[in-house]
Amino acid sequence: MTRILGVDPGLTRCGVGVIELGKSRKTSLVFVGVIESLKTAELDSRIGSIGSELEALITKYKPDVVAIERVFSQQNLSSVMGTAQIAGVAIYLSHKHNIPIAMHTPTEVKAAVTGSGRAGKAQVGQMVANLLGLDDVPKPADAADALAIAICQAFRGSNSSTSYTKAQQKWHSAVKSARGKSIR
User: Which residues of the chain have pLDDT under 70?
Assistant: First the structure.
């Protein structure tokens, strides 16, 4: 049994979901929720409170891997910054607790869960509910997205490149070859 924590990073709402992957790729829900921070609070307080709650989830559920959505491209710079900051917190906490991480792009997550990298939020949410045997789609969308990220990790794994597109295989190869090299 493999336990996966999925993180849909966000500074206002950070989706979190824990699933278990059993035999024959059967997935089951352990926990789902959203960590929120007040827009009016100072940045350090917002990041700190989300980090504390993420660490509490890591301590409680003891995941074998943490899957985090990778910001690939987005138009809104302030939204990208908040997302990247919370992704950094999740990466740091995973390192602190000696838990491997996996990063997945939104397109990769959609493709793994629905079969189409262009699927809409409603399709992703419905497939998450179907795959986990839930009666309803988890709300809000950030919660369903976190579960989709965890399911993507469950189905694709961090070492399996056979189900990746050619572009994703090139991306993963580039990341692997860049590890350990200093960037100036």
Answer: 72-75, 158-184
